[in-house]
Design brief:
Distance between the termini: 115 Å
Oligomer: single chain
Strand content: 25-35%
Structural class: alpha+beta
CATH class of one domain: Alpha Beta
CATH architecture of one domain: Roll
Low-confidence stretches: 15-54
Largest sheet: 5 strands, antiparallel
Order of helices and strands: HHHHHEEEEE
Shape: elongated
Mean pLDDT: 83
Length: 219
């Protein structure tokens, strides 16, 4: 074979090798390719930024009162005075207070309820308890649970900085009333009955006393 042909074949082989080598290193490009993204500043690498939205919806309020309603506005005022106030937490505390007050009233044990009751409510409860004692009646009750705790409305008195929250409760309990002879004159110890109450709690916002007092009852 001619030496010139041999040289051409050698050069061709070298060219093919170089092409394949470049393809393996650089890869191939087909179709449209997105232009390279700008390189972020080295000082910003590894850091995440967040947009802070102020004046957004307060779900702690809107979960319990329609947005923009007088009740929602009253709740917002309470939160401005006491940033740590939360409607959900209040309702959780109201649930516990409901059981304590109902059972204290049924058993005629009102002394422990003084911090939770306004003077008017305490006196009305005490009147009933004393009437039962004069008639020789005794209530035996067992608290089963609370099926419903719903905020009905909220109001705020700017002049007195006093908040009022009205809550609807649906409780379940068993109770019987016995006379002096121990005979059941009312109720059934084996029957669970539902008791519906609408109670209003009040408290001066911003005060050192954290207790809400029951100031009105209804059904």
């Amino acid at each position: 074979m001619d030496s010139a042909v041999i040289q051409l074949l050698v050069l061709a082989g070298i060219a093919v090798f170089l092409i394949l080598r470049l393809r393996s290193v650089l890869g191939t490009r087909e179709g449209y390719e997105r232009p390279p993204e700008p390189v972020a500043d080295a000082s910003a690498q590894g850091k995440r930024t967040f947009d802070v939205i102020e004046g957004g919806v307060d779900h702690d309020i809107t979960d319990h009162a329609p947005a923009g309603s007088p009740a929602a506005q009253a709740l917002a005022t309470m939160k401005r005075i006491e940033p740590d106030f939360h409607v959900g937490e209040f309702l959780g505390g109201a649930r516990q207070a409901y059981e304590m007050i109902v059972m204290g009233f049924e058993r005629g044990e009102l002394d422990d309820l003084v911090p939770l009751l306004s003077r008017d409510v305490f006196e009305s409860f005490d009147e009933v308890v004393q009437l039962r004692e004069r008639e020789g009646l005794k209530v035996e009750a067992t608290f089963v649970g609370v099926r419903e705790v719903v905020l009905v409305t909220a109001a705020f008195d700017d002049a007195r900085s006093e908040a009022e929250l009205t809550v609807r409760f649906v409780g379940e309990l068993t109770s019987v009333v016995r006379n002096r002879a121990g005979e059941i004159v009312e109720g059934d110890a084996n029957a669970v009955k539902q008791q519906r109450d609408i109670w209003t709690f009040a408290r001066k916002m911003g005060s050192d006393n954290p207790n809400w007092r029951l100031v009105a009852t209804g059904d």
